[in-house]
Amino acid sequence: MEWRYYPGKFRFRDKVLRDNDIRSAVVQVAAAICPSAKIEWNEATSGILATFAPDALDIEKLKALLPLLKELEPKVRFYAPQKKAAVLEGIQKIRAAV
Fold first, then answer.
1. In Å, what is the CA distance from 97 to each residue of 18, 20, 24, 44, 73?
2. Which long-range contacts link 92-95 to residues 24+ away (Cβ below 8 Å)?
3. What is the pLDDT of residues 32-84, one digit of tens each?
4. Where are the alpha helices (DSSP H) in the chain?
5. Is the dihedral of CA 57, 60, 61, 63 positive or negative?
6. First CA to last CA distance, the chain
C-alpha cells in the first residue's frame, strides 16, 4: 500500500482498497488520525485522500504509526482474498494505536 504525508493531506493508495470492508476500515483510521479531515475516495486511482488544515495534525502522531504500517505492507502487497482477515486485523491494530 502506498501511503504519503504532506502538510495538510495524507493519502493511502492500493487496489486492495477496492474491497469495501478494507476501504471502510482505512477510512475509519484516517478519520481517527485527523477528525477534522475531509476524506475522499477515488475509484480510478484506488486512493483515499484526507485533506485538513496543515496545523490540525501532529506529525509525531503519524510517525508512531510507521512500524504498524510497515508490518501491514507485505500483507497488502501480496494480497489475496484469503488474506482479507489478516489485512483487516492489521488495520485495526493501527486504529487501536491512534
1. 24, 22, 17, 30, 16
2. 92/25, 93/68, 94/29, 94/65, 94/68, 94/69, 95/25, 95/28, 95/29, 95/32
3. 999 999 999 999 999 999 999 999 988 888 899 999 999 999 999 889 999 99
4. 20-33, 59-63, 66-77, 84-97
5. positive
6. 19
Unique residue bearing C-alpha cell 490540525: 56
91 within 8 A of 22, measured Cβ to Cβ: yes
Burial classification of residue 76, based on how many CB atoms lie within 10 Å of its CB (0-12 exposed, 13-18 middle, 19 or more buried): buried
33-45 confidence digits (pLDDT tens): 999 999 999 999 9
pTM score, whole prediction: 0.89
Residues 47 and 42: their CA atoms lie apart, in Å, by: 5
Count of beta carbons in the 10 Å neighbourhood of residue 88? 17
